[in-house]
């Protein structure tokens, strides 16, 4: 499966910096991804919904680290390009994945105030 398009909608909130949508193989779109400025740098949050207990659950997400990295790289590259076009072009410091597992860093605290996947 190939990512064939990424669209970015900039936001200027404390943590939420953009919404993104991705098209796969020119035939399937996923909306509601978020670019978050977290404590360890920028990262991509998958589309989610708020549960009754107040926590968030991903609606769609990659099931392996390779695809997660590809999604994060493509979205953050598109985000950086959109920032440059808007005149706010500073380098995007990306959150680092765990060196041993490749897993994304814990992000629950970074998601406070970022809200569910809406606004697109």
Task: Write a brief structural summary.
The protein has 120 residues and is α+β, with helices and mostly antiparallel strands. The chain has helices spanning 65-86, 108-111, and strands spanning 3-10, 16-24, 28-38, 41-45, 48-50, 56-58.
> What form results from the Cα inertia axes?
globular
CATH class type? Alpha Beta
Which residues form runs of ≥5 with pLDDT under 50?
A: none
State the total count of DSSP E strands. 6
Description:
- With 120 residues, this protein is an alpha+beta fold.
- The chain has helices spanning 65-86, 108-111; strands at 3-10, 16-24, 28-38, 41-45, 48-50, 56-58.
- It has a single domain (3-111), classed as 2-Layer Sandwich (Arylsulfatase, C-terminal domain).
- 19% of the residues are buried.
- The mean pLDDT is 84.
Topology:
Blueprint: E1 3-10, E2 16-24, E3 28-38, E4 41-45, E5 48-50, E6 56-58, H1 65-86, H2 108-111
Antiparallel strand pairs: 1-2, 2-3, 3-4, 5-6
Structural key phrases:
single chain, 120 residues, alpha+beta, Arylsulfatase, C-terminal domain, four-stranded antiparallel beta sheet, two-stranded antiparallel sheet, 2 helices, 6 strands, 22% helix, globular
């Amino acid at each position: 499966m190939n990512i064939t398009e990424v669209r970015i909608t900039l936001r200027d909130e404390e943590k939420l910096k953009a919404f993104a949508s991705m098209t796969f193989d020119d035939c399937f779109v996923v909306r509601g991804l978020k670019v978050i400025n977290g404590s360890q740098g920028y990262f991509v949050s998958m589309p989610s919904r708020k549960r009754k207990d107040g926590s968030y659950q991903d609606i769609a997400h990659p099931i392996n680290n390779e695809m997660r990295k590809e999604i994060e790289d493509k979205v953050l590259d598109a985000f950086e390009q959109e920032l440059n076009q808007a005149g706010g072009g500073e380098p995007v410091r990306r959150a680092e994945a765990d060196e041993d597992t490749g897993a994304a860093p814990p992000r629950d605290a970074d998601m406070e105030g970022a809200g569910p996947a809406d606004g697109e």
